[in-house]
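Q: I'm building a small set of examples for a reading group on sequence design. Run inverse folding on the following structure and report the sequence directly after it, with nothing in between.
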C-alpha cells in the first residue's frame, strides 16, 4: 500500500475525504467551473469559495463539512504551482464551525459588524521555495503563502485584493490567498501571521464601482467600522443619535 494511503487511514473522516476531494475541487477552480459539484450534497460538504492568483502560483479553497451539525468543521486548503504541477502545501481548520446564515447580512446587522471582517487566517511555507533552497523542514528562509478567511456584507459586490478583483459568493464567505517574503526573525508558530505576512490592501466595492470600505494591511477592523466607532465616540453619554448640538 502506498505510504500516503496508509497515513490517510488514520486521519479523521473529514481529513480523509478532504485528501480525496481536494484535487477535484482544485481542478474546478483552475478550470473556472462552479466549485460545488452537483454530485456532492451540500449538507455533507459546502464549498464556500476559492481564490486563484496565477501570477503568484498560489490558490486556496474554503469549505465546511456537515454545516448543519454540531460536529461541523471549517477547512481552508492551500495549493502551490510547483513546476508544471499544482500541489497541496498546507491549510487549517476549526471545529465547530459557526452555522452558515441563510442570507448575506448587511453591515451593522447582528453577525456582520463591518463591510468586511476577518474570520481566520492560515500560513505555510512555500513548497517550491523549500525545494529550491534544498531545506526540507522549517526554519527555512523560503517564501510563505498566506490566506485570509473573510465575511463580506451584502452591500459589497466585489473586492479588490491588491490589484486583483475577487468576486463575493453567496452567502458572503470567501478566502483570499497571497505570497509573501519569509520572516526576518524567528519563524512564527504554525498557522500564525508573522510581521512579514502583510496582506495587500482590501477594498470593498459596490456594484457601481463606488468604494464602501477598506481594510488596511494587518489591521483588525475595516474603515467602515472605524468610522462607526468614531461616530459613537463623538456622541455625549446618554444623548440619542442625531441630537448633537
Amino acid at each position: 500500500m502506498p505510504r500516503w494511503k496508509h497515513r490517510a487511514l488514520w486521519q479523521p473522516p473529514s481529513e480523509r475525504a478532504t485528501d480525496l476531494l481536494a484535487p477535484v475541487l482544485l481542478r474546478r477552480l483552475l478550470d473556472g467551473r462552479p466549485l460545488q459539484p452537483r454530485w456532492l450534497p451540500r449538507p455533507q460538504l459546502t464549498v464556500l469559495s476559492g481564490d486563484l492568483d496565477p501570477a503568484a502560483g498560489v490558490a486556496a479553497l474554503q469549505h465546511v463539512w456537515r454545516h448543519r451539525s454540531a460536529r461541523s468543521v471549517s477547512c481552508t486548503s492551500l495549493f502551490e504551482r510547483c513546476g508544471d504541477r499544482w500541489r497541496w502545501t498546507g491549510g487549517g481548520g476549526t471545529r465547530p464551525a459557526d452555522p452558515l446564515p441563510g442570507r448575506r447580512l448587511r453591515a451593522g446587522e447582528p453577525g456582520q459588524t463591518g463591510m468586511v471582517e476577518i474570520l481566520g487566517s492560515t500560513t505555510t511555507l512555500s513548497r517550491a521555495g523549500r525545494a529550491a533552497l534544498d531545506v526540507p523542514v522549517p526554519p527555512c528562509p523560503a517564501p510563505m503563502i498566506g490566506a485570509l478567511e473573510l465575511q463580506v456584507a451584502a452591500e459589497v459586490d466585489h473586492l479588490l485584493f491588491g490589484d486583483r478583483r475577487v468576486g463575493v459568493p453567496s452567502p458572503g464567505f470567501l478566502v483570499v490567498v497571497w505570497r509573501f517574503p519569509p520572516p526576518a526573525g524567528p519563524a512564527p508558530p504554525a498557522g500564525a501571521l508573522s510581521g512579514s505576512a502583510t496582506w495587500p490592501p482590501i477594498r470593498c466595492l459596490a456594484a457601481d464601482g463606488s468604494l464602501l470600505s477598506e481594510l488596511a494591511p494587518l489591521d483588525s477592523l475595516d474603515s467602515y467600522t472605524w468610522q462607526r466607532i468614531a461616530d459613537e465616540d463623538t456622541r455625549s453619554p446618554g444623548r440619542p443619535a442625531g441630537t448633537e448640538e
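Confidence is low (pLDDT under 50) at residues 1-12.
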